Amino acid sequence: MTIAPASALRRLYFVRFGFAIVWALVMFTTAKHIGPLAATLLVLYPLFDAAAAVVDARTSRGSGGSSSGNGSRTPKLLYANIAISLLAAAALAFADASGIPAVLRVWGIWAIVAGLIQLIVGVTRRTMGGQWPMIVSGGISVLAGGSFIATASGHDPALTSAIGYAVPGAVFFLISAVRLGRTTAAAKEA
C-alpha cells in the first residue's frame, strides 16, 4: 500500500462525510416540497459527488493507479462516476420542475449506477484497506436506488428518503476514513 494516496483518500472521505451531514441537515428543513433551496440542494449533491470523484481520480492517476490496487481501472471508473453524477445533476435540475416523483426516479437511477461504481471501486481497492464500508455502501446504494424508484410511484412520496440516503452514506465514509487512518498508521510503523 502506498501511504500518500491512502492519506489523500482518507482526507477526501472526511470531507465527504462532513458535506453529506450538513447537506442532510439543511435538506431536512426543506424536504416537504421542492422550493428553491430544496431544488438547489438536490442538484448540489451529485455535483459534489462529481467533484469528489475528480479529486479521487487525480489521486489515483497521480499514484500510477497504485491507490486502486488495480492499475488504471479505478480512474476510469471514477471518470464514469463523474459523467453519471453530472448527468444526474442536470436531470435533477429538470426533474425539480416536475415534482417529487420525478426527482425520486432520477435520484434512484443515479443511486443505482453510482452505487455499482462505488462497489466496484471498493473491490478494486480492497488491498488498500478501509474499503469494506465503501463496498457495503455501494451495495446499499443500489438497493436504495430501487427503493426510490418504487417510492416515486407510491402514495405521497417524500424527499426525506434522499436524506435517508445521505446520512448512512456519510457514516460509511467516516468509517472508511477511520479505517484508512489505522491502515496508514500501521504501514508507517512497518
Provide keyphrases for this structure.
single chain, 190 residues, mainly alpha, 6 helices, 80% helix, 0% strand, elongated
Describe the structure.
The chain is mainly alpha-helical. Helices cover 80% and strands 0% of the residues.
Mean pLDDT: 87
Helix percent reads: over 70%
Which residue ranges are poorly predicted, with pLDDT under 50 across at least 5 consecutive positions? 64-71
What is the CA-based Rg, rounded? Answer: 17 Å
What gross morphology would you assign?
A: elongated
Number of domains: 1
What class do helices, strands and sheet pairing give?
mainly alpha
**Main beta sheet:** none
Strand content: under 5%
Distinct helical segment count: 6
Topology as H/E string?
HHHHHH
- What is the count of β-strands? 0
Rounded to the nearest angstrom, the distance between the terminal CA atoms is: 11 Å
Short description:
With 190 residues, this protein is mainly alpha-helical. It has six helices and no strands.
Write the layout of secondary structure elements.
Blueprint: H1 3-28, H2 36-62, H3 73-95, H4 100-124, H5 132-152, H6 160-189
Helix pairs in contact: 1-2, 1-6, 2-3, 3-4, 4-5, 5-6
